[in-house]
Amino acid sequence: MDFRFSEQEKAFQKEVEDFIKQELPPRYTEKSVYWPGGYGTIAEFEEIIPEIDHFRHRLGEKGWLTMSWPREYGGASRTHIERAIFGERMSYYRAPGPEVAVLIGGPTILRFGSEEMKREWLPGIARGDTKFWLAYSEPNAGSDLVSLQTRATEDGDDLIINGQKIWSSGAHIAGYAWMVVRTDPSAPPHKGISLIIVDNKSPGITIRPLMNICNRHSFNEVFFDNVRAPKKNIVGEKNKGWYYLMVALDFERLITPIGGFKRTLEELTQYARHTKHNGQALCQNALIRNKLAEMAIQTEVAYMFFWQTAWMLDRGLMPNIEASLLKLFTTQLSQKLAEVGMQVLGHYGQLDETSKFVPLRGRVCLGYLDCISALVGAGTSEIQRNIIAMRGLGLPLT
Q1: Residue 63: DSSP 8-state
Q2: For 132-239, which CATH superfamily applies?
Q3: DSSP tag of 273
Q4: Contacts of 343 (CB under 8 A, 6+ apart)
Q5: What are the beta bridge partners of residue 166?
Q6: CB-hemisphere CA count at 13 Å for 241?
Q7: Where are the domains of the chain?
Q8: 136 has pLDDT over 60
Q9: Which helix (H) or strand (E) covers residue 227, if one does?
């Protein structure tokens, strides 16, 4: 595997960077408190949502939201390496880029959806007009998602849905649920689940906010009371949703804010260079130097996993095990980086963004709280290790 960029790829990287610097709302990168890998700080600034929508639509106009999709569905037919270059630069600047519909729903529809479904949903996703939220987890179905209880029964051309979803990131700002429901309770658990798109405006849907550990509204609990959804919104075949979901989860595990790790490490390094303790720059402390050097090494390893998955996709390979490796390594890196950040900042690391003395806008304090969510979303670290052990090493399920 040779991950050196071609001249064309280098030119594209510069084009993306120039675009971000020109189009991103002023001081967005500095204002953002997003911690790479976390789910609790990913909520956007409410006061500049119009600017964020404008930025995303500009990306859609250029075909960059869905750059590796075929042109007939609104994509730009670019390589997956170019898509990875775009994602790396976007995350480096903490820019609001593609969301669930683009990153998870669209690729799954491309692979399993009917031609009618592709024509109906993909153009709106590519433009940035159609947004999904993940309606997977339930109060008693998280890592053991096959035990989900939300039911959908047939009534003419519709499914009638009853049940509850929880930890629903972005349900309050998205337009549609990308949802798994049980459509055949008599079938074996894996064979009675369907994947369906449900309009948030449907009667019977109630969305209640859940404040996360960072005191932000990113999560929700969502209730479905006799909600009607057309059967034509079922992705692929009815009762085969579990298998589509496994692929969709691989797409989710490939969503890695890799540039955000590098940006955060650079900010911590700059802080260590310019901050003195007992008359000496923090960077001269051997313990701090070693910890930052270790983070630099692990960040480079994460980059190698990241480029590897794009390289595989360009060769028609589905990085199943590699997606779990990438997800496991980077979410653990999220936690390690937060711990090192707290050690570098010392007592200042406990200050949040409301303090006038806070360094780095309180990002480290929030990151220390938020990094735990990185180890849970898209499948816990334990789940990723099981996948690597069984599918990668051929070990038996214990």
Answers
A1: T
A2: Butyryl-CoA Dehydrogenase, subunit A, domain 2 (2.40.110.10)
A3: H
A4: 288, 291, 349
A5: 221
A6: 27
A7: 7-127, 132-239, 250-392
A8: yes
A9: strand 217-230
Start-to-end CA distance of the chain, whole Å, equals 34
d(C-alpha 196, C-alpha 181), whole Å: 8
pLDDT of residue 45: 42
Question: Which residue in this structure is represented by tokens 């956007």?
Answer: 44
CA distance 220 to 177: 12
Tens digits of residue pLDDT in 325-338:
999 999 999 999 99
Interval 71-106: pLDDT, tens: 889 888 899 899 999 999 999 999 988 888 998 999
Domain 250-392: which topology? Butyryl-CoA Dehydrogenase, subunit A; domain 3 (1.20.140)
The DSSP-derived string for 171-222 is TTT-SEEEEEEES-TTS-GGGSEEEEEEETTSTTEEEEEEE-TTS-EEEEEE
Confidence of residue 379 (pLDDT cuts 50, 70, 90): confident
Euclidean distance between CA atoms 19 and 98, whole angstroms: 15
Q: Was domain 7-127 assigned CATH 1.10.540.10?
A: yes
